[in-house]
Automatic annotation (TrEMBL):
Protein name: Heme chaperone HemW
Entries under Pfam families matching the protein: Radical_SAM (PF04055)
InterPro entries for the chain: Aldolase_TIM, Coproporphyrinogen-III_oxidase, Elp3/MiaA/NifB-like_rSAM, HemW-like, rSAM, rSAM_sf
Domain (Radical SAM core): residue spans on this chain: 27-276
Family affiliation: Belongs to the anaerobic coproporphyrinogen-III oxidase family. HemW subfamily.
Organism annotation: Georgenia daeguensis
Length: 429
């Protein structure tokens, strides 16, 4: 889960020095700090993708992959200045080690390992890494080999997330994915040999994908014995190649009933293989060290930090950041991003200072998706009076768990996971 929405929202103009209001420091001692590093380069652009990514041919001087690590280090230096502001410290923002680092894209492993190591090293030198910190990079199966994975582990990476998407060649072709699915067992083995935890990403609902195709992908993923599986429903976004193909009638629009069938199949196959869902689209391998009532040990702690409203700084063009009640986002184009940093200016394009009502809305929207559920009235164990009728309706519809509701929590049933957005609307309307 990357903090990279396809379009930048509206917002107020941030200061050129990136300074944060003192309100962002309130309660920070109880929040973890994470870092997201966006690498906006891909060898080719996949037809379904609307992330902020570019091929080298689309860029030019000052924004190439070769110079990118140096540019990213400039933003890390800026982040260090902003977060060490004495005014924020006086307001309650402590010096914190980084708990999680996630390098996403794009295809981060298009960069030399030495560049990824420089970026991680800058994070380590700036804030320090907390004991047991989770450090993940995304990778395409055709962008790594045994030597590069070993080098990533030596540099301090602990986890790799492979963009598998499908095990069926025709589905990969529709998605414009370039890797050979037969390579997956090799790259997973190389990652294991290097001591890295392994996650694989799957997409279901690709036009032309049958239920049998999807079952093949699930069975193949399980056979790889990863620590973690993400399974995302394909969303056809306007402005993408696939969006144009659907608009012209060349590809069918994904069907909601088909997506529900495939999600239920994923839940069954992965559960039978020893995985447990901890967020609607994410499953982690169970472990004897797992603590009942808490996410599995192999859950992505970085992604959990987003859903739990922790703090993170997003480095890179288009990256979003969040500290306390402030959210901001960077300019999207790598050339503009590089230019601003070269001028010692913040690359932020806009920001929002969130009021209490908005933060509560987001707490509900994000918390509902987690397996441990949402505490409706924190610290009380009660369903607030204003929501009692709503929760009763959700129970009657089989969308939430009865025992959890009696403890003042909303926990989704399998049917509720299929209709998670409807549950959120019911709780927030």
């Amino acid at each position: 889960m990357d903090p990279m929405p396809p379009a930048l929202p509206d917002g107020e103009t941030p200061p050129d020095d990136g300074a944060l209001p003192v309100s962002s420091a309130h309660g920070a001692a109880a929040r973890d700090l994470g870092v997201y590093l966006h690498v906006p380069f891909c060898r080719v652009r996949c037809g379904y993708c609307d992330f902020n990514t570019y091929t080298n041919a689309e860029l030019g001087g000052g924004a190439s992959a070769a110079s990118y690590a140096t540019t990213a280090l400039r933003e890390i230096e800026l982040a260090a200045r902003v977060l060490s502001d004495p005014t924020l410290a006086d307001a309650g923002l402590p010096a914190r080690e980084v708990s999680t680092v996630f390098v996403g894209g794009g295809t981060p492993t298009m960069l030399p390992v030495a560049d990824l190591a420089r970026m991680l090293g800058a994070v380590r030198d700036t804030w320090g890494l907390a004991p047991g910190a989770e450090v993940t990079t995304e990778a395409n199966p055709d962008s790594v080999d045994a030597a590069s994975l070993a080098a990533l582990a030596a540099a301090g990476f602990t986890r790799v997330s492979f963009g598998m998407q499908s095990a069926v060649r025709s589905v990969l072709e529709t998605l414009d994915r370039t890797h050979d699915p037969a390579r997956l067992p090799d790259v997973v083995r190389w990652a294991r040999d290097a001591g890295l935890e392994v996650s694989v990403d799957l997409i279901y609902g690709t036009p032309g994908e049958s239920v049998d195709n999807w079952r093949t992908s699930l069975d193949t993923a399980v056979a790889l014995e990863p620590d973690h599986v993400s399974a995302y429903a394909l969303v056809v976004e306007p402005g993408t190649k696939m969006g144009a193909q659907v608009r012209r009638g060349e590809l069918p629009l994904p069907d909601d009933d088909d997506a529900a069938t495939k999600y239920e199949l994923a839940d069954r196959v992965l559960s039978e293989a020893g995985f447990r869902w901890y967020e609607v689209s994410n499953f982690a391998r169970t472990d004897p060290a797992d603590v009942p009532g808490r996410p599995p040990r192999h859950a992505s702690r970085h992604n959990l930090s987003y859903w739990r409203d922790q703090d993170w700084w997003g480095v890179g063009p288009g990256a979003h950041s969040h500290v306390g009640n402030v959210r901001w986002w960077n300019v999207k184009h790598p050339r503009t991003y590089a230019f601003r940093l070269e001028q010692s200016l913040s690359p932020a394009a806009g920001r929002e200072v969130l009021d209490d009502a908005t933060r509560e809305l987001e707490r509900i929207m994000l918390g509902v998706r987690l397996a441990d559920g949402l505490e409706l009235e924190p610290g009380t164990g009660r369903v607030p009076e204003r929501l009692r009728g709503t929760v009763a309706d959700l129970l009657r519809e089989g969308l939430v768990d009865f025992a959890a509701a009696r403890r003042g929590r909303v926990q989704l049933t399998l049917r509720g996971r299929l209709l998670a957005d409807a549950v959120v609307r019911a709780l927030t309307d």
